[in-house]
Each structure stands twice: as structure tokens, then as C-alpha cells.
Specification:
Number of strands: 0
Distance between the termini: 62 Å
Helix content: over 70%
Shape: globular
Structural class: mainly alpha
Number of helices: 10
Strand content: under 5%
Number of domains: 1
Length: 258
């Protein structure tokens, strides 16, 4: 007669594998963002409203060609900034203030895993934004000329640049100061970054400086790809790469977790 093996009920302590921890944390971050009305307003509603408002009216002189062709790449750039910079800076700043980051530091999730989870969340939200904005733009008559896959390079570099400076702001300023500064930067870059206002309307000296902003480089790069059919917009990619390296280095150096 064969003996029935005994059931082993002894504890088996140990952390989950890192990919599983990152996925769990990213899921939590995403659910928290989707439940936050202010974040949804910033990341989804405002970009779509701007596209509908300026694309469906003649409030602004956007030059020759369909208005939606100029606006869509700029609104996509704004969506990247709103998620990777503004939303992440504000959210992380208040997590730091309330001790959430400190408590996460006591869990098996390493800091690199937390950063990876936040990055994954940003990329998922950006994908949702892109689907929504492109669907609205296509319904308005937008017909991109370039390869959409070529837009991944400026989007990823722009995400890295904005994320670095968003985390730098969240990790060095008080939460209230981060909230005010992030929203101020959002409004200023919206007005001066070539998102809905063409940069050629500014004086040449001012325009030369504005073209070096990350939002301007991202919007210009996306326009070159999606409007002009350029596969590799070298100038904007170089500007974004410089901002991405600078933001990452500064955030790694000065970010305070408590």
C-alpha cells in the first residue's frame, strides 16, 4: 500500500521575483492614477480639448495645410509632458511627503524596481493617450504621412527627459512647491513650446532659444515624422538626448527619498 505524502505547510518566506514585484507596483500606480480625477484631467482631457478647440475653430492662424496636421503632433508631445513630467512630479512629490516612498523602502522592492514600475506606468498611460488622441485626430481628418513607428524614438527620449526632471523636482522640493512649479512649467511650455502656437510667430532670437526646449524638440520631431515623413529627425533627437541625460544624472544625484 502506497503511503500518501504529507502536505508541507511550513512557512516559505522570501520576496517575489523582481519582474513580478515591478508588475504589481506598476499595476498599483496605474490604478491610483486612473482613480485620480485631477490626473485624468491633466493627462487625457486637456490634450483632447485643445485638439478639438484649436483644430475645429479658426482661433489661431496655424499656417497652410489642415489645422489638425499641425496640432496633432504638438498635442501628442503635450500628452507626454503631462504624464512623464507634470503628473509624475506631483504624484511622486506627495508620495514623498506622506512617507509612501519611505515605507516602500522597507519592502523587498528595490529602488531600481520602483523607478522601473513608475516608468512602466508612464509608458502605459502614454500609449492610452496616443490611442485616444490619434483616434480623435483621425476622426477630424488627420492623415499622417510618416511611419508611426519612427515616432517612437522622439517619444521615448522625450519621456526620459521629462521623467528625469519630474523626479528631480519631486525629490528636491516640498510637495506644495512641486505642485505649483510643475503646473507653472506646464502652462509656460504649453504657451511657448510650439504645441499649439507656431514658433515662427516669435522673434528670431526668442525662437532660437525656444527651439532648444524639450517640449519644442519633441513637438518638432513628431511633426517631422508624422507630417513631413522624415524617418530620423536628427536635430530634435539630439536636443532630447541632451535633456534626457541631464535630467537622469541630476535626478540620480539630488533625489531625496524622505
Amino acid at each position: 500500500m502506497t503511503a500518501t505524502p504529507s502536505l508541507d505547510l511550513s512557512p516559505a518566506p522570501g520576496a517575489a521575483r523582481l519582474p513580478r514585484m515591478i508588475a504589481a507596483q506598476a499595476g498599483y500606480e496605474l490604478r491610483t492614477l486612473l482613480r485620480n480625477g485631477e490626473q485624468l484631467l491633466l493627462t487625457l482631457i486637456i490634450p483632447v480639448v485643445l485638439l478639438l478647440l484649436f483644430g475645429g475653430t479658426s482661433l489661431l492662424d496655424l499656417g497652410p495645410g489642415p489645422r489638425v496636421d499641425f496640432l496633432t503632433p504638438g498635442v501628442l508631445a503635450l500628452a507626454v509632458m503631462s504624464t512623464a513630467f507634470t503628473g509624475q512630479a506631483i504624484g511622486t512629490g506627495f508620495e514623498r511627503r506622506y512617507g509612501v516612498l519611505k515605507r516602500l523602502g522597507a519592502t523587498p522592492l528595490p529602488r531600481s524596481g520602483l523607478v522601473a514600475a513608475k516608468t512602466l506606468t508612464v509608458l502605459v498611460v502614454e500609449a492610452l493617450q496616443a490611442v485616444l488622441i490619434c483616434a480623435v485626430a483621425l476622426a477630424m481628418g488627420w492623415r499622417p504621412d510618416g511611419d508611426p513607428l519612427s515616432a517612437l524614438a522622439p517619444v521615448l527620449l522625450g519621456t526620459a527627459a521629462f521623467s528625469g526632471f519630474g523626479l528631480l523636482m519631486a525629490g528636491t522640493l516640498r510637495a506644495e512647491a512641486t505642485l505649483a512649479a510643475a503646473n507653472l512649467v506646464y502652462v509656460l511650455l504649453l504657451a511657448t513650446g510650439g504645441v499649439v502656437f507656431p514658433l515662427d510667430r516669435f522673434p528670431s532670437a526668442v525662437r532660437a532659444a525656444l527651439e532648444l526646449l524639450p517640449i519644442s524638440a519633441l513637438a518638432d520631431g513628431l511633426r517631422r515624422v508624422l507630417q513631413d515623413g522624415v524617418a530620423f529627425p536628427g536635430g530634435p533627437l539630439l536636443v532630447l538626448a541632451v535633456w534626457a541625460v541631464a535630467g537622469t544624472v541630476l535626478a540620480a544625484r539630488f533625489f531625496r527619498w524622505e
